[in-house]
Amino acid sequence: MERTRATATWADIGSPSTSASSAAAFDFTGLDPVLGNGSVDVVDPTDPDGQLLGSVLIDDPNPTTFTYSVPYSGDPAGTCTSHTNTASLTVDELPLESASKTVKVCVGADLTASTTAEPSMTRTFEWGISKDVDTTSQTVAPGGSAMFDYTVKVTHDDSRLEPERLGGGHHRRERRRR
């Protein structure tokens, strides 16, 4: 048997006191509790198969996991675009909580080229490039992916000066593909 005490208070209205207390006994033995929010729906508006990922009941495995893929396409070339994906828990279509993750999609751009001809004095350089990788081989499970870290080193000499001449130049510009 448990006991609890409740106190009520009120503004001073001229009575002898501004509060009163009382104690009562209660017994929870044999009561069947009412189950409140014993299930939730998991929704994600970007899920390709529809918004409802599924429902989770209180007796389901804890945690319950939903795995799905969301494709992103149509982002502008030469840019990186962030996409936020949010999943939410609802009870009777009323929102409870949500969780979000943001991913970034980078789209490469095409090479552009132009040619010009003008007299010039040209200073030229000998350029060099080398590349290293942290490891040359990785073994992954079927369907897995491997990550390699590369290092690119670019070098040049002190240059040499070529006399004035009329010549053409080829200029190219390439946006870095991510």
Secondary-structure topology with pairs:
Blueprint: E1 2-9, E2 19-26, E3 39-43, E4 52-57, E5 79-91, E6 94-107, E7 112-124, E8 127-133, E9 150-156, E10 160-173
Antiparallel strand pairs: 1-2, 3-4, 3-5, 5-6, 7-10, 8-9
Descriptive tags:
about 180 residues, mainly beta, single chain, four-stranded antiparallel beta sheet
Describe the structure.
The protein has a domain at 39-107. Helix content is 0%, strand content 53%. The chain contains no helices and ten strands. The chain has strands at 2-9, 19-26, 39-43, 52-57, 79-91, 94-107, 112-124, 127-133, 150-156, 160-173. The protein has a four-stranded antiparallel sheet with strand order 4-3-5-6, with no helix packed on it. The mean pLDDT is 76.
The span between the termini is 69 Å
Structural class of the secondary elements?
Answer: mainly beta
Proportion of residues in helical segments = under 10%
Helix count, DSSP H or I runs of 4 or more residues: 0
Please provide the ordered H/E string of secondary-structure elements: EEEEEEEEEE
Q: Which whole number gives the mean pLDDT?
A: 76
Total beta strand runs:
10
Give me the oligomer status: single chain
> DSSP strand (E) fraction?
over 45%
Radius of gyration: 35 Å
pLDDT < 50 stretches: none
Major sheet, described briefly? Answer: 4 strands, antiparallel
In short:
This protein is mainly beta. Helix content is 0%, strand content 53%.
